[in-house]
Amino acid sequence: YVRFHLISPLIQQSAENIVLFDTFVNILSHNLAEPAYEADVAQLEYKLVAGEHGLVVRVKGFNHKLPLLFQLIIDHLADFSFTPAVFEMITEQLKKTYFNILIKPETLAKDVRLLILEHSRWSMIDKYQTLMNGLSIESLSAFVKAFKSQLFVEGLVQGNFTS
């Protein structure tokens, strides 16, 4: 079991940064779907989670091939690229996701409660409006470059691993 949290102070600076981060993580997951398929068949699991303060990379499975899967994820993160078509597809999916959160009373109530309790939190309405106003490919590229330049990493490795 390997879990790394890539923390960046950049994410919580604005609603636009949060939306760009969500877009980045979704595109990264999309890019990994095909190359990581064989790992999935070999009973290795991975998950990318857009956390509040950064990207959580979780990998679990048999130890002899787990480093290869983790390296694949890190390589895709380091050499992040995307096409305009993928960018459009992911932003459309995010619009639907954000809208579905806004129309459910229980998730909207949770969002409002956390907005009141947490000092630097952006509401789902702010994120949805930012996305509806439009994102540019250039802003995503600039965000990803800035995100990778301001990272703090926390990690946990459990199981049959050597140092």
Automatic annotation (TrEMBL):
Residues 1-129 form the Peptidase M16 middle/third domain. The keyword Aminoacyl-tRNA synthetase does not apply. Keywords: Metal-binding. One of its GO terms (molecular function) is metal ion binding. InterPro entries: Metalloenz_LuxS/M16, Peptidase_M16, Peptidase_M16_M. Pfam families: Peptidase_M16_M. The keyword Metal-binding applies. Transmembrane segments: none annotated. This is NRDC protein. The lineage of its organism: Eukaryota, Metazoa, Chordata, Craniata, Vertebrata.
